[in-house]
Structures
1.
Amino acid sequence: MKPKYQKIVVPLHRDSEYNGIKIRNMRDFVFENKTKVYFGKEQMCHLHEEVARFGKRVLMVYGGGSIKRIGLYDKVMAELQKAGASVFELSGVEPNPRHTTVNKGAAICKQEGIDVLLAVGGGSTIDCTKAIAAAAKYEGDDVWDLITEKAVVSESLPIITVLTLSATGSEMDGGCVISNMETNEKLGYFGPDNYPDVSFLDPTNTFSVSPYQTACGSVDIMAHVFDVCYFTKRPTMDMLHRIQEEVLKTVVKYAPVALAKPDDYEARANLMWASSWALNNFLFEGFFQATVCHAMEHELSAFYDITHGHGLAILHPRWLTYVLDEETAPIIQRFGINVMGLDGSLPVMEGAKAAIKALETFYFETLGLKRRLSDLGIDDKNFAAMARKACGAEGILHGFTDLTPADVEKIFRMCL
């Protein structure tokens, strides 16, 4: 069965009647996640046996070379040698992976008859590898045809990941995001079977992650919960809403610890597992909404190539401020009480404003991220175009509160 995590093509809710009363229901759902996870610092010894299940010809995909500095490259190569594998490499994957890099990887797969892809890195590397897995089965030579739905494929190459950054959840989910810098587009792609088959999650591989990337990754984890399922006016399952809050609280608790003590295993382990569970489908089954802040941030990354988590941090408080009203205030206040530990006796609107302030403090003071787009060298010259692209062909960005291009442009300007 094809995993269910895909673009929305059905109504976000279904109404029914009970004794003449119209009821807004959660959607029925099927939960499936095929990824097998090896978690912990002694699990790499199983890599060779997992690789051998898929074949002998491996394309290893990685980024700028940090895996060599921390010794992970040598460990992975030793395991591949045990598997008797012929190893080909694609290095230099960008923080916002380019479609041109995906095309290079797909060409290697076709030329060398690759059996299995091995992504060693963070979310960008894994996203790039997912797109390669699909593009390798495409008769054409440009993955952008698949991403823009000009062409489709029915299968993908198997994928194994070795995670080095807690952020995107790509190690246990079915999507990827690829950038086309020629057209200033950053788009999601949900291939025929993009879930990794196996993922190795060793928290020690994140000990060397910089404070900046640790902070940005932590924001990204929270953003997945915020955007997809937490801030909503639609029906959800309370059990899942409570678990969403626990994932958010985990990040709030352990991100500062990881910043203060990068080799704290407990902190890194909690962030790593929170990353995986923030976006592996479980938290938002029976419910799905458009990812408003992600859509806006993808435009920032597409035009300015900034770090995704940092862009999200700048957007979140302004977005919440912009959509704050009598209808949205209760759930924003609930976040402040249940996640940020604020006083629950405050009036709803006052409590909601305090929650937004607490989130700002966490992002910009506790995590130390710069708070404005102008701090990143961004001005307003592209805002109108970015806002139109964020809202798509329909001209509406659906979510917590529906936004028009004019709304999105105003939020961008609030971020300056």
2.
Amino acid sequence: MKRIFTKILLTSAMFLTSVIGAKAEVDPNFHIYICFGQSNMEGNATPEAQDKTGIDSRFQMLACVDFQSPSRKMGQWYKATPPLVRQGTGLGMADYFGRTMVANLPDNMKVGVVDVAIGGTKIEGFMQEEVASYIASMDPKTEGWLINYFKAYDNDPYKRLVDMAKIAQQSGIIKGILLHQGCSNNMQQDWPQKVKKIYNRLISDLNLKAADVPLFVGETVRSEMGGACGGHNAVIANVPSVIPNSYVISSANCPQKGDGLHFTAAGYRAMGARYAQQALRVIYDIDPEYDDPYLTTTEKEIDQRYTDQTLPKTGSFAIVNEAESKAIYGMYGQKLGYADYKTAFKETNTGYIFKQGKGSGGVRLKLLTPDGNDYQVDGEIGYMNSQVVDGSCCFLSGNMNSQSGQDLAKGAVWTLEYVDGKGFSIKNVGTGKYLKDPNSPAKYDEPTYFTLCTLKAKSTTTGIEDVRSKRSEARSGVYTLNGQRVANPKKGLYIVNGKKVIFK
């Protein structure tokens, strides 16, 4: 008997060892994105027929709670058919983020989302040191619905997010984090710092590297679209100055439901795709083409060229290298980009027009946003600096009391020297060297000549047209405020080329 019992124990041990050893290997082509926030991330629009069909099986969602309908078990992967967050939620940011991602990635790559969101929560709902007191402060009579939302995550949504993310890491690799929250913390200036605490904790708890895992933060409904919390976008704009590897996703022209807080289904489709566009650019170096009915896509070209040293002092200008057909622009965060005109002169960029500011012994080059305002860093005007951050020149705050401000004298002051027939050279006062392109600091002995110019809409050509121009022309059209294309519009308000137009 003793020998038989020993044999059984050995066999059992061997079986357990084989089961443990049979753990599935991590698929390097399965890329995971963590999503969190409040109602717009949770999903507040009723999915329409188009939102439930045509979903690529390469787009997956990890159930973070148990669902009854559709039947889903927490911690397991499913095809990403809405709702993605929990039963009873709707279409949100993650839906068309994932769809757009897989549509632009190679066929051997999959995308998965881990989405924990609570409609109505403050950012404190995801801060473990704050969540208990935050829930305790709720009034059961008026906020019982919110208390119940927290119960779905055992009153600790951050822990649920991390637990589910760790399960996801057994299958794939976490590549980025998506956040949409802010209305419940409207205009609170310390919101970016709270977001940073959560981001840093996620990076630590999931054993990630911040340089490899960017944060994408979406704007709330804009004020011009009737947004009740549109002013908070000025606070959201400060996130990249607090979290270096972070990017703000524009909500420009995206329609809302009428409550001032939530986007329509069409708005979620556009926002999700915009999250994906930025992720594809930053992580995969892919610039996808996407038919966004709410953004102007007019291509621009050189209009007037400055040929006098004094003219740029009073006007604004693009900085163009005509020999390479490239321009300098505000890429994202505090970074400066350098690319072809079509890429550089996009309304979705931080900006591409510059203006002179005063500097000691030279000038400071400040960026203007697409709407003509000064681009800001930490609430101060941002000036182009020679130093390179993450492979690109950056912008420094104009606040002389900050660490960045200490570098202004040497890093962010330039002289513009015009040579007839060649253009302007850009020389750094501190280094005495010339700027060649924003991918390296001002370190060159020989000047590169740039054209300082105004821009205009690209003129149409005759004869053989560019294929991309034909595609853009075919895409233009008339859309309802819900994003539906209309062949024969009647009287009413529509979106045409990203702008509201009244048909009478």
